[in-house]
Specification:
Layout (H helix, E strand, L loop, with lengths): L3 E5 L6 H9 L17 E7 L2 E7 L8 H17 L2 E7 L6 H11 L4 E7 L7 H6 L8 E3 L8 H10 L4 E2 L5 E8 L5 H9 L17 E7 L2 E7 L12 H16 L2 E7 L6 H12 L4 E6 L6 H17 L4 E4 L8 H15 L5 H14 L12 E6 L5 E7 L7 H15 L6 E6 L10
Parallel strand pairs: 1-3, 1-4, 4-5, 5-6, 8-10, 8-11, 11-12, 12-13, 15-16
Antiparallel strand pairs: 2-3, 3-7, 9-10, 14-15
Length: about 450
């Protein structure tokens, strides 16, 4: 079992920026505002060929009592699962009563603790530094997450007092759960993980950060992203909402598979179509999930199915799954569908097979230019890219109509058994690179 580190402290001491620097990835939202982190975010702390899991927890205090209690429970769970605690404080503020309260809480867990005095990028009086001696920790590090001061020494110390695991690169499929606020994304992820990992509430905007959660199913490793709900522009006046949406859009671009979640309580909205278009523009395989089917009548379901056909008509092979995250209905079906897509993502196809499919497609329906002359497509080859991209060589490829391009995409998808996986075709007016001319 890999050992873990938990970043713990009051709000606005720089835990999320420190987490981002230690994991070398901008995973958590960093704003000079209290209560931005609510859920527990997870990443990997790498050093040489070893690693530790690391948790970014919510600040222990919030203006919102409901979320404060929920976040506090998540923080305690992260502390309990960790063998080492980074107790983060701020030199700018000195010791506060909240720091002393958190110190008392941490000592009850009987864990290894490193006191981190953050924000040491500016000159402060030694008197303020001496204050932290009152907390009674033997292991203290003065760092600046902003300027990277002291971070290497902190990492080296962490690895010397824990038992890190050997790190090996493996194929990991990134799955992003995308949708409007309050469609049940976090509840769905909790059902998949079979644990209460993300904070859930009927209040729209409960998730404001994009969480990265490791998960394994049928031998495949996944990173699940629980994203903030994507709202209309008119609803994104608050700066936190804007940051949340930007993080969600970033997750779409980084994901291998997107899960577009829609509530069965509503018909397909203009906002749902806008989100779908973002996924389509990024050329991502996606599954359409209709959640909350437990709260609609048969008549409403019939109307909904007719409405959902919008997606089937505009994208070949779209996978549509009706489920209830709350009642665990069809969760396994979703997992197997994700697994199927993930397995297809890593397939590599020989040029000979792709060229045969191309030739078959052209023989069935030849393509002609505007002057009714035959356009010859000679050769197809898969490109090295994160998505499924195929380059087709031939003459007058710039004259191929859009309708024929769509026909080829659908034909390749059908012949390769890749329903739900977008195929990007690139046409080049070049000779067959494998043709020796003999």
């Amino acid at each position: 079992m890999t050992e873990s580190v938990a970043l713990v402290g009051r709000t606005n001491v720089g835990k999320s920026l420190l987490f981002n620097k230690l994991t070398q990835y901008k995973n958590s939202i960093v704003l000079n505002k209290h209560g931005v982190t609510r859920d527990v975010n997870q990443g990997k702390l790498l050093f040489e060929d070893k690693y530790l899991n690391i948790y970014d927890t919510a600040g222990i205090t919030s203006d919102d009592e409901q979320f404060s209690n929920l976040a506090y429970e998540k923080t305690l769970q992260a502390i309990d699962k960790s063998s080492l605690i980074f107790f983060v404080t701020s030199l700018e503020d000195g010791i506060t009563s909240k720091d002393k309260e958190i110190c008392s809480i941490l000592r009850k867990f009987n864990k290894k603790i490193i006191l981190i005095i953050n924000k040491c990028d500016k000159q402060k009086s030694d008197l303020k530094r001496f204050e932290f001696g009152e907390l009674g920790f033997n292991c203290t590090f003065e760092v600046s997450a902003k300027t990277n001061k002291g971070l290497l020494q902190l990492i080296e110390k962490s690895f010397s007092i824990t038992n890190p695991s050997l790190y090996t690169e493996s194929k990991t499929c990134r799955v992003a759960f995308i949708g409007k606020p309050n469609v049940g994304k976090s509840t769905l992820i909790n059902s998949i993980l079979n644990e209460s990992r993300s904070i859930t509430s009927d209040t729209p905007g409960t998730t404001i950060d994009s969480l990265e959660i490791p998960f394994t199913f049928k031998g495949n490793k996944y990173l699940i992203y629980d994203t903030a709900g994507i709202m209309k522009k008119s609803s994104t006046k608050e700066i936190i909402n804007k940051y949340s949406i930007n993080m969600s859009l970033k997750c779409i671009s980084h994901a291998n598979v997107c899960i577009l979640v829609i509530s069965a309580e509503e018909l397909i909205s203009k906002q749902d179509k806008s989100i779908f278009n973002i996924i389509k523009e990024n050329n991502k395989p996606f599954i359409l999930v209709i959640n909350k089917i437990d709260v609609v009548t048969r008549h409403e379901m019939k109307k909904l199915r007719s409405n959902v056909d919008y997606f089937s008509n505009i994208l070949f092979g779209t996978k549509i799954i009706y489920l209830s995250a709350l009642e665990n209905r069809n969760i396994r079906k979703l997992l197997f569908t994700i697994n199927h897509l993930a397995n297809n993502l890593y397939n590599e196809y020989r040029p000979s097979r792709l060229t045969k499919i191309l030739n078959d497609a052209c023989n069935k329906h030849p393509v002609k230019n505007s002057r009714n002359r035959l356009i010859k497509l000679k050769f197809a080859k898969q490109n090295k890219s994160s998505d499924l991209s195929i380059t087709i060589h031939g003459n007058q490829t710039d004259k191929i109509p859009d309708s024929y391009r769509k026909y080829l995409v659908n034909y390749f998808s059908e012949q390769l058994g890749l329903s739900g996986v977008p195929i990007r075709l690139i046409f080049k007016k070049e000779k067959n690179p494998y043709d020796t001319g003999s």
